[in-house]
């Protein structure tokens, strides 16, 4: 009885009643889950020289991470996890404009924090693989664990078009999946459908720029690499390996 009473009081004290705070914390957690799984699958592939992971496992990790993120907070914040999706929801009047900048900041923060968690998780592997030098390009680069970098042949214009088209396909697909007036996805399986959509885009549009499709997924980790030792080179248009 004493333990039960204590837990009841603790839950009452820790319960957050402000709806906006609840949504922000949920969005933060969902984005954290998305990015930590996505980046970890990339770190496993790169630091093992593709012995313990490859392009397929990296794509699967990223797609399944979306599913986990949606299941984590979809019923509270909507689990946007992506400023582009938040903007799309504002444009179709399904999300208030005043919340948009708040969600963007929260999404960026979640991505930044999870990047730090991945760095800690793979700290020894990163430093061993890189021979003690954190670089953005070259055969032992590790920056692409965190952010996406274009292939050698991709111009800035082609990179921009690549991301516009990829993100547009993602948004149209997600809006179609969640539209109750459309051919309905079985209730509770929407996150699975979104994960399959992401996997299909990664498998067909990932060659040029790595298929980030999400400003928070790319910019948050890129900011982390900037402050963690990779330096300003992470913001330049550089070839990933050479």
Automatic annotation (TrEMBL):
It catalyses: glycerol(in) = glycerol(out); urea(in) = urea(out); H2O(in) = H2O(out). It comes from Pycnonotus jocosus (Red-whiskered bulbul). Gene3D superfamilies: Glycerol uptake facilitator protein (1.20.1080.10). It is found in: Cell membrane. It is a multi-pass membrane protein. The chain crosses the membrane at residues 20-39, 59-79, 100-122, 160-178. One of its GO terms (molecular function) is water channel activity. GO terms for cellular component: basolateral plasma membrane. Belongs to the MIP/aquaporin (TC 1.A.8) family. Its main location: membrane. The keyword Flavoprotein does not apply. Aquaglyceroporins form homotetrameric transmembrane channels, with each monomer independently mediating glycerol and water transport across the plasma membrane along their osmotic gradient. Could also be permeable to urea. Also participates in cell permeability to H2O2 and H2O2-mediated signaling. In skin, transports glycerol to the epidermis and stratum corneum, where it maintains hydration, elasticity, and supports lipid biosynthesis for barrier repair. In kidney, contributes to the reabsorption of water, helping the body maintain proper fluid balance. Keywords: Cell membrane, Glycoprotein, Membrane, Repeat, Transmembrane, Transmembrane helix, Transport. This is Aquaporin-3. Homotetramer; each monomer provides an independent glycerol/water pore. Could also exist in other oligomeric states.
